Predict the structure of Ependymin.
Amino acid sequence: MKFILVFVCLLGLSLGASLKRTPKPCKSPALMTGAFTFSTQNEAAWLYAGYEYDAFQQRMRIYETGYINNQSVTYDFLLHYAQGVVYQIDSKAKTCTKAPLADKFLPLGVPTNATLTGQVMLGAGGPGEGLLVDTWHGYLEGLEYYVTVTEFGCIPVTELVRTKEFGWVILSYFNNVQGLIDPNALNPPPYCPGQAVKTQGRPMDFFSVVHKMKKHTA
């Protein structure tokens, strides 16, 4: 009985200490699969897309299925930041184009120079319920941002970024899981241009890639 009481007391102290700890900048898991919604201030655009993310090799794949003239169309982009390349893939037609990627790879999570703006419990109905999240503010690569991540695990929840071209951009993440469902999906298919083939077209970044998907499926 004494052992149980001591254990309960220690557990209570541990939980209390964890809830009182000061939030710190963090990095999200290096391998993740999930989905997000994307909307822009100046065009009231909205998009749902799935993603696979690999921080180790600086790769990300974004895909979405939409409808044009009652026909299902999938828009699929593979971003290789280390090589400065973005592939637009059509797996049904087995075609692939290769364009320059202008973005610098920025891992998901909270930059080290961010400032904490607050901590809240989402959906809390009682003790032990809800999701504890931290919201941070800062400037990165000349862009102002707000990012919200879970206190435990540093899983992305929302990102709010002020861009010159689109105004405020909001990304809301959900269905996030650690790891890759299909690791091969982050490699270009055999029918994509090889490394020796030069990129063509206008340089793109993450926001212009997602915006292009929205324009095609609108």
The helical segments are 2-20, 206-217. The radius of gyration is 20 Å. The chain has one domain: 31-217.
